[in-house]
Amino acid sequence: MPHRRASLTTALLAAGAVLAAGGCSGSAGSGDSGAKSATHHGPSVIAPGKPGEANRTMSAEDAAEQREDDNSPNTADRSYAHMMIVHHTQALKMTELAPKRAESTQVKRIAERISAAQGPEISSMKGWLATYGKGGVAHDHGTMPGMATEAQLTELRAAKGKAFDQLFLKLMIAHHQGAITMATDVKAQGNNVQIEEMADDVIAQQTSEIVRMRDML
User: What's the pTM?
Assistant: First the structure.
């Protein structure tokens, strides 16, 4: 009987040792897994591979660094700069009419605000094109969204007082909406950070101005 108890005790001790070893092993494995998870913590980005190569999974930080390294302008960037200069220039022609033809003080102020913002933006885009604009392509500016027609501009030049105010606001809201469309497109299709920042400024500034002008109608 004592011999059987000793054997049973030995067996239980051995089993406990195996379980303890297994528990330690499992904890170590879990720890390794946790370390690996910590290493790869954060969102991943699928980066398209070069022709013939598979896509790559990158961390958001690596993707951002690669974007900064690859800042070369593409056709969409150059097209945006060329077109937006023309687009802004027409807006300035419209705002030049406001001081003498508008009746509303609010309309005069929004015209002044638009002029103050878009004049420097034209200069910035011209400066950018002086560096990166080689190889730019010609565009049919009449197809740009939001552009007023010659007939509409003639009507605006002839209008005065409340009639001018209403027509100016109507045309400028459409003009701003067109600029926002162009800025949104280049953010999706372009590659240059400077152009993207300019587009962000256009979207923010002109979205705010649209809200103001709609309140004046």
Answer: 0.68
